[in-house]
Design a protein that fits this description.
Chain lengths: ~300, ~120, ~270
């Protein structure tokens, strides 16, 4: 390509391939730059790259040159009743322009209220009212970013008495109305189903898999609630559980291969342990039929 | 010093600095040796992280502040993991400040001043 | 107010106040209230923010020990929930909080160590900017040299301490044993530090007397002549040549311009 390039133009606007990817942690920057491992893509949390400059951007720019990137927002608070934080949306849009990620995803959750950021993915009741609000917010985000985004199913610990939709139905309706795609977090399916006493296979049978463009896998912690019932915590601090791998195989059998991320955000292990999890997902993806959706994965 | 004398002093200092920095030896490593008075100590921070070969070009790899996880140990006081819902912990410093005495900063080996500081820090 | 707005308000209120019961209608799978389930969210908020503070203030944490730091951070978080989802900005008020934090008042140097850590983090994440080529200053005529205004690199931060905060920071920024030089009289060891990241790495520099006044004057847009006067008012002698060489050679200056001379009034 002829010069001059702008900094972001040097990044290839690659689609994220239907392979295994890994959440990029600072502890692994060096290992990735040195060994250039054969990983399908990397994903980062958008908010960690919202400083004006400095080392995080240097590392991400270098890694982005060689790998497709998925950008995962944790702060837009799409499930809030109140309006989106315009300044934050502009920061996200600037980051999307700068790094041209193949995918941008956010959560069916809220984290900000009344000007306070609670730094957690908080639950949303599933009603006609919240459905409309979530769709309005998705319209605004997709318009600002000029692209389709992915919305992730949550891990939940409580149930709202006012909910009138089952979670997979709510997500199906959100995707249908807003035109967003979905990120299926299989660990969240396992965690939410255990905590809400839902059957995960029935949940997945109802889930609108035709809208799924990416899968997340992670490890969970186990606890109990006030009544000594099991309560699973979406801890992202260990290997993926066998039950979750089984659900993943089940999803791949129906869906075919889709980009799959290994999330490990706490007690981050050596690179080799993370790569081994990605390798296992990669084997499952190779065994799965190519996805019909594969060709429809947006270029970014 | 008159305004004119002061102005000439500034001009002379500026010219000397510019000349010094133009000399290849003086700028080795991007740092003039004659800056030593100002830089009684110039430290690279977080030296223990400086083993990586990419640090010089990219900087220290500092973990992000926004992580996507749920904190463990959330529900039961009996779990080994952290639970912030329980009674307040005592505010007794047990870190390296126990090796630093006040009002004078004395660096000691071991825990020579531990009891004194625990008392002071209470 | 819509039902969701109302419920969200009550949910947020219960997150802020651990003594409040969870909002009505926020239940376990049997449709009955379950405080421990709601506590997952309360704990996530606290744990995440305490972790973010630990990330920003590793030296304060090392000085206090993990448990004492967590309790200090927990009390800070309770009164300072973030206003922005960008957590690398979180905790800017931590040093000021420590100034007034009675239980740790004996550790007089602690707030200034926190200020150094905040300045380090700000320098780390500050905008990148190419340094000024010192040769550009050679063209300035001698009689205008005192009218030069120098723009500092966006990452430059000054921390002034009345105690030996920089020494204490330096001894604790690595994991090694806390061993150091001769005992330092805390009251007689005021230290000024400059932090900047002209390239990839954050430089932390102990300043000579007068340098902080000099740099602060430049940062506020004063001319080289005025800044030199500020430095000399604070401390005589002040070696301007050495400081200019260090500032320009360190890459801490990004541009220079001449201040317009005031035209004489009637």
């Amino acid at each position: 390509m002829p010069v001059p390039h702008t900094e972001s133009r040097r990044c290839r606007p690659d689609a994220v391939p239907p392979r295994a990817g890994v959440g990029l942690k600072a502890a692994h920057y060096g290992a990735v730059l040195e060994a250039r491992p054969d990983i399908g893509f990397f994903e980062v949390h958008a908010e960690n790259y919202m400083g004006a400059g400095g080392p995080p951007h240097r590392y991400l720019t270098a890694i982005r040159k060689d790998y497709p990137l998925s950008l995962h927002g944790v702060g837009l608070s799409i499930g809030s009743d109140g309006p989106l934080d315009g300044a934050h949306l502009r920061r996200v849009a600037a980051l999307v322009r700068r790094y041209e990620p193949g995918l941008f995803s956010e959560h069916l959750a809220w984290s900000s209220h009344g000007g306070t950021f609670f730094n957690d993915l908080l639950p949303v009741p599933y009603t006609a009212c919240t459905l409309q609000r979530v769709c309005e917010h998705l319209d605004q985000v997709q318009e600002s970013l000029g692209r389709q985004i992915l919305l992730e199913n949550p891990s939940t610990y409580v149930a709202f008495a006012t909910s009138t939709y089952h979670e997979p139905d709510f997500l199906a309706e959100v995707a249908r109305r807003s035109g967003c795609a979905l990120l299926l977090d299989v660990n969240n399916v396992h965690v939410a189903c255990a905590n809400q006493q839902w059957d995960p296979h029935r949940y997945l049978a109802l889930f609108p898999l035709e809208h799924v463009r990416q899968i997340h896998l992670a490890g969970f912690a186990t606890d109990v609630d006030e009544h000594r019932r099991p309560l699973l915590i979406d801890a992202h601090d260990r290997e993926i559980a066998e039950e979750v791998w089984a659900l993943y195989d089940h999803v791949l059998a129906r869906l075919g291969a889709v980009p799959t991320l290994i999330e490990w955000d706490q007690n981050v292990p050596q690179w080799a342990a993370l790569a081994a999890q990605a390798e296992r997902a990669e084997r499952a993806l190779r065994a799965a039929a190519p996805s019909q959706e594969r060709r429809r994965v947006a270029l970014g | 010093m008159s305004t004119r004398t002061a102005s000439l002093a500034v001009a002379s200092a500026l010219a000397t600095a510019v000349t010094a920095l133009a000399a290849p030896l003086a700028t080795a490593g991007g740092m003039s040796m004659s800056g030593s008075m100002m830089m009684k100590q110039r430290e690279h921070t977080m030296a223990e992280l400086h083993t990586g070969k990419f640090v010089r070009c990219f900087g220290v790899a500092l973990a992000g502040h926004n992580d996507c996880y749920a904190g463990p140990g959330t529900t039961c006081a009996g779990t080994a993991s952290r639970n912030y819902q329980g009674n307040a912990f005592k505010l007794v410093p047990t870190g390296t400040c126990t090796a630093i005495t006040t009002p004078y900063v004395t660096i000691v080996h071991g825990h020579g001043s531990l009891s004194k500081i625990t008392e002071a820090g209470r | 107010m819509s039902p969701w707005a109302d419920l969200q308000e009550r949910f947020a209120g219960a997150l802020r106040c651990p003594e409040r019961p969870p909002p009505v209608g926020c239940n376990g799978p049997d449709g009955l209230p379950d405080v421990k389930r709601f506590d997952v969210y309360r704990n996530n908020v606290l744990a995440g923010l305490i972790d973010a503070l630990a990330q920003s203030y590793p030296v304060v944490r090392r000085l206090l020990g993990a448990e004492c730091f967590e309790e200090t951070a927990r009390r800070f978080v309770a009164g300072h929930l973030p206003r922005s989802p960008v957590l690398l900005e979180y905790g800017q008020e931590f040093a000021a909080f420590l100034d007034r934090f009675e239980p740790l008042a004996a550790l007089a140097y602690l707030p200034d160590v926190a200020r150094i850590e905040r300045a380090w983090l700000e320098a780390y994440h500050a905008a990148d900017a190419p340094p000024l080529n010192p040769g550009a200053l050679a063209r300035i005529p001698a009689e205008r040299a005192a009218d030069v205004c120098l723009t500092l690199h966006p990452s430059v931060r000054l921390v002034r301490s009345r105690c030996a905060a920089l020494t204490i920071w330096r001894l604790n920024v690595t994991d090694g044993p806390v061993t150091g030089p001769e005992p330092i009289a805390l009251d007689a060891s005021a230290q000024d530090a400059l932090l900047a990241r002209p390239e990839a790495e954050v430089d932390v520099i102990a300043l000579a007397p007068g340098a902080a006044e000099f740099i602060a004057a430049l940062a506020s847009g004063r001319t080289l002549g005025d800044a030199t006067e500020c430095a000399r008012n604070a401390h005589e002698p002040f070696d301007l040549t050495e400081h200019l060489t260090a500032l320009l050679g360190g890459g801490w200056i990004t541009s220079a311009h001449l201040k317009r001379r005031r035209t004489r009034g009637p």
